[in-house]
Design goal:
The protein has 502 residues and is of the alpha/beta class. The chain has 22 helices and 16 strands. The longest helix has 21 residues. The relative contact order is 0.14.
């Protein structure tokens, strides 16, 4: 399997080199030369564990890895660090099937890929004879940062630098990141939003002078964002797994379609579902759920990507994004791998913040449905699901559920549907508590505090009120000391990177 850039350079890379590099030489993103077929039939995968299915799917994309190397990566990633024995449990509620992707160490779906990326990265380095230190450079809207830090903390031959938007993540998310203690971890808040952080990271990757300075230090840059193909492919596995589980549960017969709903800002998670469909999983409609930063909803409906709009800080902060990186991969595939067209559109986005795709791409977008959810609708969805079903959703999953209900009401399509449940409710405890009717007065009583309630008090109160287990990674988080308290201007990011790597 070879990998090519979305921007048409036609310089093919091995999977190991693509994983190490993270971003292509022409600033595009790597995609496989062809989407492979499923390695086994659905019938053959029935009864297999998550680890067994992930092994087969990943090995199909990363076929340079020996059987032993791939087994090492899978076994190291999906072990007891996941609190659920099945890794990604499937729960039925509210007429849909929730694929719970948040039972890893950081209580978010990013663990599903970032638990294995360090293994893929270090194995790739050994196979390529790479002697330089790898610096993982990442922007986060909340969850990627901690999952990447957790994955690469203490990993020999690596440094990891994470940028996140100051005041743009939840208190729980921030403490998770700034309390990471290993010496190869570096965390910085930037004065700006996630798009500023992501744009800054991309500029650093594109800066030849910066690359030369780092090369003099014996350091190469790579990424843990979903721009890295080693981050994206592991996500494909859980959509293959979810279809097999629906067949096992009798929710559908083998060959019948499943719809998929994904709350998304950077488009990687829903792109993985699209790729699973191209491998042969019977995927019906791909339902893309946005919050009030609904640039993807508008794009899917019109074919015009227009980031010239107000940026909203919402109660689903991991989706507070206006520049969606992984969409580039989708339009490349829908444009029949026309790298020149994609390069033009991405240049227009960079310079003018707007582009319009071709009619053929617009035709491909008809497989998608775009919808969005306001903050109030998010809270209403959480409250109704809890009161009716005693199923506790985080804010992002609630966005997905609300958009799913809108889709069914609009189309009448009652195809069995998987909703990607992307985070524990406790990561956004303030909003979830509000959704189920807990005001601050009641929270303070439940948490046993008299001062203003913190995000950690909301975690305690929510647990007492609902009886839903708090993930181990979030327990007593407020007691962990702050190790990183650095804030920088977005223009200072290159200097910050060089300083961190001294």
């Amino acid at each position: 399997m070879r990998y090519e850039s979305t921007r048409g350079s036609k310089i093919f890379q091995s999977s190991t080199k693509a994983i190490i590099r993270g971003i292509a030489e022409d600033k595009g993103l790597y995609v496989p030369e062809e989407i492979p077929a499923l390695p086994l039939s659905i019938e053959e995968m029935k009864g297999m564990t998550y680890q067994q299915i992930a092994y087969k799917v990943l090995h199909t994309y990363f076929d340079e890895f020996s059987d032993e190397e791939m087994a090492y990566c899978i076994d190291g990633a999906y072990d007891s660090k996941f609190e659920a024995a099945e890794v990604a449990p499937m729960k039925k509620a509210g007429g849909a099937y929730f694929l719970e992707l948040y039972h890893g160490k950081t209580a978010a779906f990013k663990d599903m890929a970032l638990s294995i990326l360090p293994y893929l990265m270090t194995t790739s380095c050994k196979k390529e004879g790479e002697t330089d230190k790898i610096c993982i450079l990442t922007a986060t809207s909340g969850d990627t940062g901690k999952a990447a830090l957790e994955g690469f903390a203490g990993v020999e031959g690596t440094e990891i630098i994470v940028f996140y938007p100051e005041n743009g993540v939840s208190q729980v998310q921030e403490r998770q990141m700034v309390s990471q203690a290993e010496p190869n971890t570096h965390v910085f808040a930037i004065k700006g939003n996630f798009d500023d952080a992501q744009t800054g990271v991309k500029k650093i990757f594109a800066d030849d002078e910066m690359k030369a300075k780092l090369a003099d230090k014996g350091i190469k840059l790579s990424s843990a964002n979903s721009i890295n193909i080693g981050r994206l492919v592991p996500q494909v596995a859980y959509y293959v797994y979810s279809y097999v589980k629906l067949v096992e549960m009798g929710a559908l017969k083998n060959g019948e379609p499943m719809n998929v709903v994904v709350p998304t800002g950077n488009f990687g998670n829903i792109l993985a579902a699209y790729m699973a469909g191209k491998m042969g999983v019977p995927v019906g409609k791909l339902i893309c759920a946005s919050n009030e930063n609904k640039v993807l909803t508008d794009f899917i409906r019109t074919g015009v990507y227009d980031a010239r709009r107000d940026f909203h800080l919402t109660n689903s902060p991991s989706m507070d994004i206006l520049i969606s990186s992984n969409l580039e991969r989708l339009i490349y595939l829908l444009a029949e791998r026309d790298g020149e067209a994609v390069s033009r559109w991405m240049t227009a986005l960079d310079q003018e913040k707007v582009y319009e795709v071709s009619d053929s791409v617009k035709e491909g977008l008809k497989n998608f449905y775009g919808g969005f959810c306001t903050e109030e609708e998010t809270l209403d969805a959480i409250g109704k699901m809890w009161s009716d079903e005693k199923y506790l959703m985080d804010t992002h999953t609630a966005v997905a559920y609300k958009v799913y209900k809108d889709y069914v009401a609009e189309t009448g399509d009652e195809t069995p549907t998987v909703i990607a449940s992307t985070a524990s409710a406790y990561k956004f405890a303030e909003s979830v508590a509000k959704g189920i009717g807990l005001d601050e007065t009641k929270v303070k009583i439940l948490a046993g505090v008299t001062d203003k309630a913190t995000g950690f008090d909301y975690v305690k109160a929510l647990a007492k009120e609902t009886g839903v287990k708090v993930p181990l990674g979030l327990k007593d988080l407020e007691l962990k000391p702050v190790v990183h308290n650095n804030v920088c201007e977005k223009a200072e990011m290159p200097e910050v990177v060089l300083g961190a790597l001294k």
